[in-house]
């Protein structure tokens, strides 16, 4: 059995991803291609769209293509999952004779830094989806002549670059959520710039929760948390954000912006209270 794993944020899914899927099926002569949306990439601090929604979009877009399966494995873990863990899961589940890992050309430079990289190379053959003009590499290539930036696509939606089955879903989501999206992106960018870690956003819109969005970030310690509070006030107040309440506790500070709640937690407090698991249960509720 020939099996390939194609993982990514798919934020949103687009025709560039679709080109990778169709090219891999034909050129690698696969029996099965497993598409794996991430919960959060180990190399990213945040995503724009909640993981359950990206999983739903990906499933609707490509889940019915013959020899393609969209897997919820990484989303179900509710944490960043290194590719080696997913490959091991696929190997246990399907026991393929040949296992490929398909990566984007932009991952070439960071590949050696991937978790348990040497073990990964023993388990799977890496295949690079190339847009052309790729630097020299001994790795197998898939020629993909489509160049799309997901971040630019989120800002300027283009029907020609989105899979037809999910075009309306994506347009409706980003059109309705754009003002909130811009506010969340501003908060996440600021926290990331100021060295907060493991930033996660939970979309509570339409759920039985008292705010629409929750942001959690890990501080480097009590002083760092206090500094982040000052930075949030300095940057967000001039943008019109109203700080309804601030609990400046040294190990777990909370900022209430009315429809957005920001938690700044030390590593020890974040591990102890596992707020992500609690919030994930609300996020999974159907609207």
Question: How would you describe what is shown here?
Answer:
- The protein is an alpha/beta fold.
- It has two domains: 2-162, HUPs (Rossmann fold); 180-283, 2-Layer Sandwich (Beta Polymerase, domain 2), CATH 3.30.460.
- The chain is 39% helix and 21% strand.
- It contains ten helices and eleven strands.
- The protein has a six-stranded parallel beta sheet, sandwiched between helices.
- α2 links the parallel β2 and β3 (68-70).
- α4 (83-94) packs parallel to α5.
- The protein starts with a strand and ends with a helix.
How do the strands and helices of this protein lay out in sequence?
Blueprint: E1 2-8, H1 15-27, E2 32-37, H2 51-62, E3 68-70, H3 73-77, H4 83-94, E4 98-104, H5 117-123, E5 125-130, E6 140-143, H6 150-155, H7 167-193, E7 197-203, E8 213-218, H8 222-236, E9 245-247, E10 252-256, E11 260-265, H9 267-273, H10 275-283
Parallel strand pairs: 1-2, 1-4, 2-3, 4-5, 5-6, 8-11
Antiparallel strand pairs: 7-8, 9-10, 10-11
Helix pairs in contact: 4-5, 7-8
